[in-house]
Amino acid sequence: MDTISRENNSMLPVGGIVVGVIGLLLGGIALIQISKVNKTLAEHQAKVDLVDTVKGQAETAAAVSEKTAKEVAGLTRSTQDAFNQVGGELGNLRGSITKLEEAAKKPAPVAADKKGGKSGPAVAGPGEYVVKAGDGGAKIAKASGVSLADLQAVNPGVDWTKLKVGQKVKLPKK
To answer: Within this chain, do residues 116 and 81 fall inside the same structural domain, yes or no?
Structure first.
C-alpha cells in the first residue's frame, strides 16, 4: 500500500475534471436538443389539434349527409306515391272528359210536336229560352238580363235542379 500512496496521482483530478466538463457539455447539448424537440412537439400539437377538429367536422358532416339521404329517400317515396294517386285521378278525369266530348258531339234532342211526332230541334219563341247543356237557373237569368227570382216566379212548375237540354222555360218581361 505504501507504493500506491507514494505514486504521483496528479493526473487523476485533472481526468475527473475533464470527464465532468464533458458530462456538462453533453448535458447542455441534450438540454438544447430537448428544447428543440419540445418546440417541434408544440408546433405539431397545434397541427394535430387542427386535424382532430377537421376529423370531428367531417364526422358531423357525414352524419348530417346520411340523415339527409334518408330524408330524401323518404320524400322520394312519398312523392312517387302522390304521383301514383294523381295519375289514377288524371285517368278518371280523362275518361270523364271523353264522355263529355262524346255527349257534346251528339245532336241536340228533338222536341216532340203536339201530335207526338218529331218536329226538329227546339226553337225558342218570343219570351222563351231553350235550355242548353250546362245551363242552370242563375246562368239563364244572367244571360237573359232578368233576376233569378223573377225567372222562377214565371216558371212555377220547373225543377231547376233537373233541367233538360231542349227544355223551354218562360222569360219574365223586362
So the answer is: no
Kindly report, residue by residue over 99-121, the tens digit of the pLDDT: 888 877 766 555 555 555 555 56
Instruction: Show the cell assigned to 71.
Output: 330524408
Chain mean position to CA 153: 55
Same domain membership, residue 132 and residue 50: no
Q: What is the pLDDT of residue 129?
A: 93
Domain carrying residue 33: 13-104
Residues 165, 132: contact at Cβ < 8 Å?
Answer: yes
- Cross-strand pairs, 118: 112
Say which amino acid occupies 6: R
Q: Do 116 and 43 have their domain in common? A: no
C-alpha cell recorded at residue 75: 320524400
Q: How many domains does the chain have?
A: 2
* Alpha carbons 150 and 174: distance in angstroms, whole number: 10
Residues 17 and 100 in one domain: yes
Domain shared by 44 and 121, yes or no: no
* Averaged pLDDT, 118-145: 84
Q: Let me know: does 112 contact 119? Beta carbons within 8 Å.
A: yes
Q: Which residue has the higher pLDDT, 74 or 111?
A: 74
